[in-house]
Protein backbone atom coordinates (compact mmCIF):
# COMPACT_ATOMS: atom_id res chain seq x y z
CA UNK A 1 0.00 0.00 0.00
CA UNK A 2 1.53 3.33 -1.10
CA UNK A 3 1.63 6.24 1.31
CA UNK A 4 1.07 9.94 0.65
CA UNK A 5 -1.34 11.74 -1.60
CA UNK A 6 -2.46 9.91 -4.75
CA UNK A 7 -1.05 11.17 -8.04
CA UNK A 8 -3.45 13.40 -9.95
CA UNK A 9 -4.71 12.19 -13.29
CA UNK A 10 -3.56 14.71 -15.86
CA UNK A 11 -4.60 15.66 -19.38
CA UNK A 12 -1.82 14.66 -21.84
CA UNK A 13 -0.31 17.55 -23.77
CA UNK A 14 -2.19 20.21 -21.83
CA UNK A 15 0.82 21.56 -19.95
CA UNK A 16 2.41 23.12 -23.02
CA UNK A 17 -0.95 24.63 -23.93
CA UNK A 18 -1.24 26.15 -20.45
CA UNK A 19 2.21 27.69 -20.86
CA UNK A 20 1.29 29.18 -24.25
CA UNK A 21 -2.05 30.47 -22.94
CA UNK A 22 -0.38 32.26 -20.03
CA UNK A 23 2.20 33.83 -22.34
CA UNK A 24 -0.36 34.85 -24.97
CA UNK A 25 -2.35 36.67 -22.28
CA UNK A 26 0.75 38.36 -20.90
CA UNK A 27 0.44 36.69 -17.50
CA UNK A 28 3.20 35.83 -15.05
CA UNK A 29 3.19 33.12 -12.39
CA UNK A 30 6.57 33.30 -10.67
CA UNK A 31 7.28 34.29 -7.06
CA UNK A 32 7.24 38.04 -7.82
CA UNK A 33 3.58 38.56 -7.02
CA UNK A 34 3.74 42.36 -6.94
CA UNK A 35 3.79 42.57 -10.73
CA UNK A 36 0.45 43.67 -12.17
CA UNK A 37 0.42 40.76 -14.62
CA UNK A 38 0.74 38.06 -11.95
CA UNK A 39 -2.14 35.56 -12.04
CA UNK A 40 -2.87 36.03 -8.34
CA UNK A 41 -3.74 39.67 -9.01
CA UNK A 42 -6.73 38.56 -11.08
CA UNK A 43 -10.02 38.12 -9.24
CA UNK A 44 -11.32 35.32 -11.46
CA UNK A 45 -8.16 33.26 -10.94
CA UNK A 46 -8.73 33.33 -7.18
CA UNK A 47 -12.50 32.79 -7.42
CA UNK A 48 -12.01 29.68 -9.58
CA UNK A 49 -9.71 28.17 -6.98
CA UNK A 50 -6.74 27.96 -9.33
CA UNK A 51 -3.30 27.35 -7.81
CA UNK A 52 -1.87 30.00 -5.49
CA UNK A 53 1.56 28.39 -5.50
CA UNK A 54 4.01 29.07 -8.32
CA UNK A 55 5.36 25.55 -7.87
CA UNK A 56 1.91 24.06 -8.48
CA UNK A 57 1.46 26.09 -11.66
CA UNK A 58 4.91 25.02 -12.86
CA UNK A 59 3.99 21.39 -12.12
CA UNK A 60 0.79 21.76 -14.17
CA UNK A 61 2.85 23.20 -17.03
CA UNK A 62 5.47 20.46 -16.81
CA UNK A 63 3.23 17.43 -16.27
CA UNK A 64 -0.12 18.53 -17.67
CA UNK A 65 -3.31 20.02 -16.24
CA UNK A 66 -4.98 17.79 -13.63
CA UNK A 67 -8.40 16.63 -14.76
CA UNK A 68 -10.04 18.20 -11.71
CA UNK A 69 -8.63 21.61 -12.70
CA UNK A 70 -9.27 21.42 -16.45
CA UNK A 71 -12.69 23.12 -16.30
CA UNK A 72 -11.42 25.84 -13.97
CA UNK A 73 -8.47 26.71 -16.21
CA UNK A 74 -10.82 26.69 -19.21
CA UNK A 75 -13.24 29.06 -17.47
CA UNK A 76 -10.42 31.45 -16.61
CA UNK A 77 -9.29 31.61 -20.25
CA UNK A 78 -12.94 31.56 -21.39
CA UNK A 79 -12.41 28.65 -23.79
CA UNK A 80 -13.99 25.24 -24.30
CA UNK A 81 -12.17 22.58 -22.20
CA UNK A 82 -11.56 20.63 -25.42
CA UNK A 83 -9.14 23.37 -26.50
CA UNK A 84 -6.82 22.03 -23.79
CA UNK A 85 -7.90 18.38 -23.93
CA UNK A 86 -7.98 17.72 -27.68
CA UNK A 87 -4.61 16.33 -28.71
CA UNK A 88 -5.24 17.29 -32.34
CA UNK A 89 -5.09 20.99 -31.44
CA UNK A 90 -1.50 22.15 -31.23
CA UNK A 91 -0.55 24.93 -28.78
CA UNK A 92 1.15 26.73 -31.67
CA UNK A 93 -1.84 26.39 -34.00
CA UNK A 94 -3.83 29.39 -35.22
CA UNK A 95 -6.98 27.83 -33.74
CA UNK A 96 -5.50 27.66 -30.24
CA UNK A 97 -4.01 31.16 -30.42
CA UNK A 98 -7.26 32.64 -31.72
CA UNK A 99 -9.39 31.10 -28.95
CA UNK A 100 -7.02 32.14 -26.17
CA UNK A 101 -6.39 35.65 -27.47
CA UNK A 102 -10.13 36.31 -27.44
CA UNK A 103 -10.03 35.92 -23.66
CA UNK A 104 -7.49 38.69 -23.11
CA UNK A 105 -10.16 41.36 -23.08
CA UNK A 106 -12.22 39.52 -20.48
CA UNK A 107 -9.15 38.92 -18.33
CA UNK A 108 -8.19 42.60 -18.60
CA UNK A 109 -11.43 43.62 -16.89
CA UNK A 110 -10.24 41.94 -13.68
CA UNK A 111 -7.60 44.60 -13.00
CA UNK A 112 -6.81 48.07 -14.24
CA UNK A 113 -4.67 48.29 -17.33
CA UNK A 114 -1.18 49.77 -17.03
CA UNK A 115 -2.65 52.95 -18.51
CA UNK A 116 -5.67 54.95 -17.41
CA UNK A 117 -9.08 53.56 -18.29
CA UNK A 118 -10.67 50.24 -17.52
CA UNK A 119 -14.01 50.54 -19.34
CA UNK A 120 -14.67 47.83 -21.89
CA UNK A 121 -14.64 50.31 -24.78
CA UNK A 122 -11.20 51.53 -23.74
CA UNK A 123 -9.91 47.95 -23.38
CA UNK A 124 -11.16 47.15 -26.86
CA UNK A 125 -9.44 50.22 -28.31
CA UNK A 126 -6.24 49.42 -26.42
CA UNK A 127 -6.02 45.85 -27.72
CA UNK A 128 -6.84 46.92 -31.25
CA UNK A 129 -3.79 49.19 -31.20
CA UNK A 130 -1.65 46.72 -29.26
CA UNK A 131 -2.57 43.35 -30.70
CA UNK A 132 -0.12 40.46 -30.70
CA UNK A 133 1.09 41.07 -34.26
CA UNK A 134 1.76 44.80 -33.78
CA UNK A 135 3.47 44.34 -30.42
CA UNK A 136 5.61 41.52 -31.81
CA UNK A 137 6.76 43.78 -34.65
CA UNK A 138 7.53 46.52 -32.13
CA UNK A 139 9.48 44.06 -29.97
CA UNK A 140 11.51 42.94 -32.98
CA UNK A 141 12.69 46.54 -33.39
CA UNK A 142 13.11 47.59 -29.74
CA UNK A 143 14.30 44.37 -28.10
CA UNK A 144 17.77 44.90 -26.70
CA UNK A 145 19.82 47.43 -24.75
CA UNK A 146 19.61 51.17 -25.42
CA UNK A 147 21.59 54.14 -24.19
CA UNK A 148 19.20 56.98 -23.30
CA UNK A 149 20.64 60.50 -23.10
CA UNK A 150 18.48 62.82 -20.98
CA UNK A 151 18.51 66.61 -20.78
CA UNK A 152 16.28 68.54 -18.39
CA UNK A 153 14.38 71.41 -19.97
CA UNK A 154 16.17 74.24 -18.14
CA UNK A 155 19.61 72.66 -17.83
CA UNK A 156 22.57 71.99 -20.10
CA UNK A 157 23.62 68.88 -18.19
CA UNK A 158 23.15 65.58 -20.04
CA UNK A 159 22.57 62.39 -18.03
CA UNK A 160 23.07 58.87 -19.29
CA UNK A 161 20.47 56.18 -18.65
CA UNK A 162 20.34 52.57 -19.85
CA UNK A 163 17.18 50.78 -21.01
CA UNK A 164 16.82 47.02 -21.47
CA UNK A 165 13.72 46.01 -23.47
CA UNK A 166 13.51 42.33 -22.59
CA UNK A 167 9.98 40.90 -22.82
CA UNK A 168 6.87 40.93 -25.02
CA UNK A 169 3.68 40.31 -23.05
CA UNK A 170 1.52 40.11 -26.17
CA UNK A 171 -0.11 43.49 -25.50
CA UNK A 172 2.83 45.63 -24.30
CA UNK A 173 6.59 45.41 -23.77
CA UNK A 174 8.54 45.24 -20.52
CA UNK A 175 11.84 47.02 -19.92
CA UNK A 176 14.27 47.74 -17.09
CA UNK A 177 16.06 51.05 -16.72
CA UNK A 178 19.03 52.47 -14.82
CA UNK A 179 19.93 56.12 -14.18
CA UNK A 180 22.77 57.69 -12.23
CA UNK A 181 21.79 61.21 -11.13
CA UNK A 182 24.84 62.87 -9.61
CA UNK A 183 25.71 60.42 -6.80
CA UNK A 184 22.33 58.66 -6.68
CA UNK A 185 21.53 55.52 -8.69
CA UNK A 186 17.97 54.60 -9.64
CA UNK A 187 16.59 51.39 -11.13
CA UNK A 188 13.32 51.50 -13.05
CA UNK A 189 10.57 49.23 -14.31
CA UNK A 190 9.09 50.30 -17.64
CA UNK A 191 6.05 49.39 -19.69
CA UNK A 192 5.86 50.28 -23.40
CA UNK A 193 2.79 50.34 -25.64
CA UNK A 194 1.43 51.95 -28.81
CA UNK A 195 -1.26 54.57 -29.30
CA UNK A 196 -1.95 56.08 -32.72
CA UNK A 197 1.43 57.05 -34.21
CA UNK A 198 3.20 57.34 -30.87
CA UNK A 199 5.12 55.13 -28.50
CA UNK A 200 4.22 55.51 -24.82
CA UNK A 201 6.40 54.57 -21.86
CA UNK A 202 5.16 54.38 -18.27
CA UNK A 203 7.87 53.86 -15.67
CA UNK A 204 8.58 53.93 -11.95
CA UNK A 205 11.66 53.53 -9.78
CA UNK A 206 11.90 50.29 -7.83
CA UNK A 207 12.07 52.28 -4.58
CA UNK A 208 8.78 53.97 -5.62
CA UNK A 209 10.26 57.46 -5.26
CA UNK A 210 9.76 58.34 -8.94
CA UNK A 211 6.97 57.76 -11.43
CA UNK A 212 7.08 59.19 -14.91
CA UNK A 213 5.98 59.09 -18.51
CA UNK A 214 7.72 59.37 -21.88
CA UNK A 215 6.37 59.62 -25.40
CA UNK A 216 8.09 59.20 -28.76
CA UNK A 217 7.22 58.69 -32.39
CA UNK A 218 6.37 55.04 -33.02
CA UNK A 219 9.25 53.45 -34.99
CA UNK A 220 6.70 51.27 -36.81
CA UNK A 221 5.10 54.45 -38.19
CA UNK A 222 8.37 56.00 -39.31
CA UNK A 223 10.52 54.26 -41.95
CA UNK A 224 13.21 56.84 -41.20
CA UNK A 225 13.43 55.69 -37.56
CA UNK A 226 12.94 51.96 -38.12
CA UNK A 227 15.68 51.86 -40.77
CA UNK A 228 18.19 53.95 -38.79
CA UNK A 229 21.38 52.19 -37.73
CA UNK A 230 21.93 52.13 -34.91
CA UNK A 231 18.26 52.57 -34.03
CA UNK A 232 17.82 56.06 -32.59
CA UNK A 233 14.86 58.32 -31.81
CA UNK A 234 13.81 61.25 -29.62
CA UNK A 235 11.61 61.07 -26.52
CA UNK A 236 9.79 63.69 -24.47
CA UNK A 237 9.22 63.05 -20.79
CA UNK A 238 7.87 64.28 -17.49
CA UNK A 239 8.16 62.89 -13.97
CA UNK A 240 7.95 63.96 -10.37
CA UNK A 241 11.17 65.76 -9.54
CA UNK A 242 14.15 64.15 -7.84
CA UNK A 243 15.19 67.48 -6.31
CA UNK A 244 12.02 69.62 -6.11
CA UNK A 245 8.80 69.01 -4.21
CA UNK A 246 6.83 71.57 -6.24
CA UNK A 247 7.95 71.47 -9.89
CA UNK A 248 8.05 68.29 -12.03
CA UNK A 249 11.05 67.35 -14.14
CA UNK A 250 10.47 67.97 -17.86
CA UNK A 251 13.11 66.52 -20.12
CA UNK A 252 14.16 65.54 -23.63
CA UNK A 253 15.71 62.21 -24.48
CA UNK A 254 17.61 60.56 -27.31
CA UNK A 255 18.05 56.78 -27.55
CA UNK A 256 20.75 54.81 -29.30
CA UNK A 257 20.54 51.02 -29.50
CA UNK A 258 23.63 48.93 -28.77
CA UNK A 259 24.94 46.01 -30.76
CA UNK A 260 25.22 43.26 -28.15
CA UNK A 261 28.45 41.20 -28.42
CA UNK A 262 27.86 37.66 -29.62
CA UNK A 263 29.60 36.20 -26.57
CA UNK A 264 27.29 37.96 -24.06
CA UNK A 265 23.65 37.54 -23.13
CA UNK A 266 21.39 40.57 -23.31
CA UNK A 267 20.98 40.76 -19.52
CA UNK A 268 24.73 40.38 -18.90
CA UNK A 269 25.47 43.16 -21.37
CA UNK A 270 22.83 45.38 -19.75
CA UNK A 271 24.44 44.81 -16.34
CA UNK A 272 27.86 45.73 -17.74
CA UNK A 273 26.61 48.97 -19.32
CA UNK A 274 24.83 49.90 -16.08
CA UNK A 275 28.14 49.56 -14.26
CA UNK A 276 29.88 51.75 -16.84
CA UNK A 277 27.21 54.45 -16.55
CA UNK A 278 27.49 54.40 -12.75
CA UNK A 279 31.26 55.00 -12.76
Quick structural overview:
With 279 residues, this protein is an alpha+beta fold. It is 33% helix and 26% strand. It contains 11 helices and 8 strands.
What does this structure look like?
With 279 residues, this protein is of the alpha+beta class. It folds into two domains: 14-111; 136-278, Quinohemoprotein amine dehydrogenase alpha subunit, domain 2 (Lipocalin, Beta Barrel), CATH 2.40.128. 33% of the residues lie in helices and 26% in strands. Helix 1 crosses helix 3 (54-63) and helix 1 crosses helix 6 (94-101).
Which spans of ≥5 residues are poorly predicted at pLDDT below 50? 111-117
Question: Distance between the terminal alpha carbons, to the nearest Å?
Answer: 65 Å
Main sheet specs: 8 strands, antiparallel, barrel
Overall CATH architecture of the largest domain: Beta Barrel
Quaternary organisation: single chain
What is the spatial order of strands in the main beta sheet? 1-2-3-4-5-6-7-8
Number of strands: 8
On the 0-100 scale, what is the average pLDDT?
86
Q: Return Rg in Å.
A: 21 Å
Strand content: 25-35%
- Helix proportion range: 25-40%
The CATH C-level name of the largest domain is: Mainly Beta
* Backbone shape: elongated
Helices and strands: which structural class? alpha+beta
Assign the CATH superfamily of the largest domain: Quinohemoprotein amine dehydrogenase alpha subunit, domain 2
Task: List SSEs in N-to-C order.
Answer: HHHHHHHHHEEEEEEHEEH
Q: Count the DSSP helices.
A: 11
CATH topology type of the largest domain: Lipocalin
